[in-house]
Amino acid sequence: MGKASNKNIQAKLVLLGDMGTGKTSLVLRFVKGQFFDFQESTIGAAFFTQVLSLNEATIKFDIWDTAGQERYHSLAPMYYRGAAAAVVVYDITSMESFQRAKKWVQELQRQGNPNLILFLAANKVDLEEKRKVGAEEGEQYAKENGMTFLETSAKTAQNVNELFYEIAKRVAKTR
Ligand code: GDP
Ligand code: MG
């Protein structure tokens, strides 16, 4: 019996969602371990790379952090084209951002790669007192749409590494 080979995988990951939901903050928390209360808004998209080591594989993520603004919407397909996984982000204090997240999911289901691994991140859970979207509501929607659901906080780092590791594990299984 040979040793299990450690695969090297390169995977494109895209974050989508309304402006202000915390996409950039989640990526910066994961990549740099930092959080900023006054995060400058992203213009167009930002690109990050991060390497994650699992037992079974080493994953190099190419992370595309998009801008959620409507005016950039027409640019979005080039960001999710060829993506292995997508994280759709909403803000638990904004019902509107949850409705927008559903629109992104529909678009990905229609236009995205059919094997796209979909995650739904309910961000800003540290703002429990301002919550407008129930955890069950997000979880239910994710379940109906074959998505993995996590409640996150870029501010406190709750579930942020878990989110990216979970994505890495799912991607590794498909390669
Ligand atoms: P993006 O437009 O989706 O990239 O959102 P940003 O990452 O720019 O974040 C928008 C605002 O929300 C910034 O002021 C962040 O500091 C704040 N923010 C992001 N994530 C969190 C979080 O988990 N909790 C709290 N309380 N604020 C957050
Ligand atoms: Mg941003």
From TrEMBL:
Task: Indicate whether GTP-binding appears among the record's keywords.
Answer: yes
Q: Name one GO cellular component term.
A: endosome membrane
Which Pfam families does the UniProt entry name for this protein?
Ras (PF00071)
- Residue ranges crossing the lipid bilayer per the database entry: none
Q: Which SMART domains match?
A: RAB, RAN, RAS, RHO
Spell out the SUPFAM superfamilies in the cross-references: P-loop containing nucleoside triphosphate hydrolases
Q: What is this protein called?
A: Ras-related protein RHN1-like
Gene source species: Rubroshorea leprosula
Phylogenetic classification of the source organism: Eukaryota, Viridiplantae, Streptophyta, Embryophyta, Tracheophyta
